[in-house]
C-alpha cells in the first residue's frame, strides 16, 4: 500500500538552531501533524539535524548558502499541496498553523505577523519590523510584519511566483511578486515570542547587506510600478 500523500508540507530552514528546534517541532499540533510532512532543510554545524531527526522530521542537508535556497530545496522535496514555512528559532508559534490555513482559504498567501501585547515593554524585534513595514506601505502592502517567515501558500502559487532569491531577500521577493501577480495576501497576528538562544544569535537582524538589498528591491519595484502606470 502506498503511503498517503500529506495535505501539508511544513518546511523549516535551519542553521545552528539546536536551542530551539526541539521546542518548535514539539509544538506542532497533533491534528496538523497527522496531515503533514515535516521537512527540515539544514546547513548546521551543531546538533540541529540530529535533534530534528530524533523528533521525526525529514532532514535534508543543504550544501548551498542562504535561506532562500533552503526554502526552495524544501519545496522541491515536498509532497503537500499547501506549504507552511516556519522559522526554527522558536519565534513562530506552530499552534497558530490552523489559523494560517483558515485564512488561506480566501487568500493566495498568508503571513503570520509577530506582534507584542499592548503596553508591553520595548522589543527590539518589533522595533526593527517597523522599517520594512514603512517600506511596503509605499506599495500599499499593508502587512504588519511583511518580512515574517511564518507563511502559508499553495504549492501551485509558490511555483507561479518563480522565486530566484537564495538569501534573506526571499520573503521580499515573494511579497513583490505576489503584488505583481495580483495575489490576495492575508495576515494573522501571532505572539511575539523570545528567540531561543537570544536575539544575539539572529542571522538576519544583524545582516546589514540584506537590509540594504531589501530596501533597494522595494524602491526599485516602486519606481518601476510608477513608470508603468504613467505609460498606461
Task: List strands and helices in order, with pairings.
Elements: E1 8-14, H1 21-26, H2 30-33, E2 36-42, H3 48-54, E3 58-61, H4 67-76, E4 82-85, H5 97-104, E5 109-115, H6 124-137, E6 151-154, H7 155-161, H8 170-180, E7 185-191, H9 208-231
Parallel strand pairs: 1-2, 1-4, 2-3, 5-7
Antiparallel strand pairs: 4-6, 5-6
Description:
This protein is an alpha/beta fold and 232 residues long. The protein has a single domain, classed as Spore Coat Polysaccharide Biosynthesis Protein SpsA, Chain A. It is 39% helix and 17% strand. The chain has helices spanning 21-26, 30-33, 48-54, 67-76, 97-104, 124-137, 155-161, 170-180, 208-231, and strands spanning 8-14, 36-42, 58-61, 82-85, 109-115, 151-154, 185-191. The protein has a seven-stranded mixed β-sheet with strand order 3-2-1-4-6-5-7, sandwiched between helices. Helix 3 (48-54) links the parallel strand 2 (36-42) and strand 3 (58-61). It is globular and about 50 Å long.
Keywords:
single chain; 232 residues; alpha/beta; Spore Coat Polysaccharide Biosynthesis Protein SpsA, Chain A; 7-stranded mixed beta sheet; 7 strands; 17% strand; globular
User: What number of domains?
Assistant: 1
Poorly predicted tracts of residues = none
| Strands, count | 7
Q: What portion of the residues fall into strands of 2 or more residues?
A: 15-25%
Question: In the CATH hierarchy, what is the class?
Answer: Alpha Beta
Q: Helix amount, in percent?
A: 25-40%
CATH superfamily: Spore Coat Polysaccharide Biosynthesis Protein SpsA, Chain A
Rg from alpha-carbon coordinates: 17 Å
Distance, first to last CA: 57 Å
Q: Mean pLDDT, rounded to whole units?
A: 90
Largest sheet: 7 strands, mixed
Amino acid at each position: 500500500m502506498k503511503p498517503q500523500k500529506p495535505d501539508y508540507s511544513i518546511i523549516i530552514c535551519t542553521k545552528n538552531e539546536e536551542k530551539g528546534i526541539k521546542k518548535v517541532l514539539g509544538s506542532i499540533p497533533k491534528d496538523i501533524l497527522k496531515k503533514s510532512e515535516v521537512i527540515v532543510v539544514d546547513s548546521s554545524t551543531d546538533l540541529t539535524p540530529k535533534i530534528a531527526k530524533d523528533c521525526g522530521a525529514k532532514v535534508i542537508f543543504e550544501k548551498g548558502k542562504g535561506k532562500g535556497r533552503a526554502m526552495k530545496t524544501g519545496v522541491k522535496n515536498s509532497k503537500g499541496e499547501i506549504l507552511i514555512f516556519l522559522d526554527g528559532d522558536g519565534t513562530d508559534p506552530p499552534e497558530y498553523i490552523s489559523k494560517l490555513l483558515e485564512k488561506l482559504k480566501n487568500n493566495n498567501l498568508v503571513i503570520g505577523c509577530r506582534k507584542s501585547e499592548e503596553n508591553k515593554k520595548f522589543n527590539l524585534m518589533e522595533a526593527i519590523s517597523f522599517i520594512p513595514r514603512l517600506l511596503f506601505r509605499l506599495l500599499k502592502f499593508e502587512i504588519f510584519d511583511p518580512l515574517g517567515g511564518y507563511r502559508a501558500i499553495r504549492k501551485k502559487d509558490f511555483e507561479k511566483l518563480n522565486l530566484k532569491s537564495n538569501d534573506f531577500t526571499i520573503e521580499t521577493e515573494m511579497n513583490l511578486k505576489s503584488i505583481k501577480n495580483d495575489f490576495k495576501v492575508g495576515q494573522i497576528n501571532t505572539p511575539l515570542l523570545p528567540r531561543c538562544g537570544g536575539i544575539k544569535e539572529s542571522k538576519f537582524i544583524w545582516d546589514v547587506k540584506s537590509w540594504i538589498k531589501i530596501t533597494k528591491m522595494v524602491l526599485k519595484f516602486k519606481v518601476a510600478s510608477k513608470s508603468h502606470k504613467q505609460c498606461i
